[in-house]
Amino acid sequence: MIISSRTNDVLTFRHTIDETGERPDISQEAAQEKLTEFLRQKFNFEPDKFTLKENSTRELDNRKEHSFTWYHNDVYIPWSDQPDTGGAQLLTGGTVSGDEILSFSKYNFKIPEEYN
Minimal CA–CA distance to 28: which of 62, 61, 57, 58? Predict the structure, then answer.
């Protein structure tokens, strides 16, 4: 868990469960809706200001974990003065399994691989 020292808000959370832990099966669409609603309620997430960057499903023996990442449309910091060389993005996302939010991140600053 990561907590803001300024506001005491939980910014990142991860709940780890056993590989064989069972959760009800829900569709990827239902999981995305569940996570979007959670982010709206907890962080005033405004989907219109974000674009879906990645979505994936991890299938385990007794459950599926659906993960989603969005990037903020208005936050992009070029890492170089050369055009088309990449830039940093502000990401928000999480993982859902069954009726449970397994992880979320309010803000994650993604630095381009070229920078490293």
Answer: 57
Cα distance between residue 101 and residue 33, in whole Å = 12
Angstrom distances, CA of residue 21 to CA of 14, 37, 61, 98, 101: 15, 24, 9, 11, 14
Q: In the chain, which stretches have pLDDT less than 70?
A: 80-85, 114-116
Cα(78)–Cα(86) distance, integer angstroms: 6
CA atoms within 13 A on the CB side of 19: 0
Asked if residues 39 and 112 have their Cβ atoms less than 8 Å apart, the reply is no
Contact (Cβ atoms closer than 8 angstroms) between residue 72 and residue 57? no
Per-residue 3-state assignment (H helix, E strand, C coil) for the chain: CEECCCCCCEEEEECCCCCCCCCCCCCHHHHHHHHHHHHHHHHCCCHHHEEEEEEEEEECCCCEEEEEEEEEEEEEEECCCCCCCCEEEEEEEEEEECCEEEEEEEEEEECCHHHC
Question: Which residue in this structure is represented by tokens 């979007």?
Answer: 36
